[in-house]
Amino acid sequence: MRTWAAKLLNGITLLGLGGVLIAFFINGRIDQYLHPQFRQWELAGGIGFCVAGAIYLVTKKSMDCCVDGQCIHSNPRSPVRAVVALGVIAVPLIAGTVFSKDSYDQQAILNRGFVQDVSGLPLRNVAKDATPAKDAKQPAIPSAALGGDNDENSIEPALPQDGSGKTASQSGAGPDSKDDSSEQYLPRAEDGNVALEVSDLLYSETEESLRKMFSGKTVEVIGQYLPGSDKSEFKVVRMFIVCCAADARPISVPVKAQGPVSVADMSWVKVIGQPEFVANGDRTKVLLKAVQVQPTDPPAEAMLY
């Protein structure tokens, strides 16, 4: 009876752990915790735990501990050990899935500390003839469109091309063409505003070519609202991760609204306005001058990568 109880509890522990991982993948909750390139491995791990748990429950193991054909001592299964394993591994994980909010509250954001300039983001080697794309459906911008041919070490965000998905050369735009403008590479929201991420504005602080592209444009940025000392000043915040939620860091851009803003702290907002670049010693800082701040739904990907 003791052996059967221990075996049952150990099998339930493995099945519970695997079931949580699979459920996180199916319902999309894993998107809040893990970089896209690792999510398939999370699913594979969950399936592996479930298979191991099922095999453990249906197989009959020897009670002896044998090495090289020599059984040296008995290997009793203890229900107490099985209960401890269940309590330490499975119960906290299952409880976390039930009570977790899948988001960072204001205190967690403040405790982690802000990344407010591009030097705090992971650097990537950018090829001279292309910039990294955010996904396979968004081709990279030719570096020449951003002035990257003048600075091989420039750091540029991945902004999509026009709706055709063609480069300037593919669409027939040449040096003398009227359509040869970097504006064709700027992503547009449904209302025609330039759709940017918080990270794009941070990159523009160190990239003169990006500042030229963004200056004078009406841009649209989605993020979480973090109030400032004045009701018309706040930060628009996103979480940036390299691997998983454990290394997530909040990145932010300061916003100056035309009047008091009344939205809930850490709620998702859409900020429409124009970026203003101000010299601060030997550095340039960005300030988003907002003409409209409105509540909005969270983006499909709450994290930036």
Description:
The structure is a single chain. With 305 residues, this protein is an alpha/beta fold. The chain has 2 domains: 2-102, no CATH class; 107-304, Nucleic acid-binding proteins (OB fold (Dihydrolipoamide Acetyltransferase, E2P)), CATH 2.40.50.140. The protein has 6 helices and 9 strands; from the N terminus they run H-H-E-E-H-H-E-H-H-E-E-E-E-E-E. The protein has helices spanning 2-27, 36-58, 79-99, 106-112, 198-204, 208-214; strands at residues 64-67, 70-74, 194-196, 219-227, 233-240, 249-257, 268-280, 283-295, 303-304. The strands form 2 sheets. It has a 5-stranded mixed beta barrel with strand order 4-5-6-8-7. Strands 1-2 form a two-stranded antiparallel sheet. Helix 1 packs parallel to helix 3. The longest helix is centred in the N-terminal third of the chain and has 26 residues, at 2-27. The radius of gyration is 26 Å and the shape is elongated. The protein starts with a helix and ends with a strand. The model is unreliable at 124-180 (pLDDT under 50).
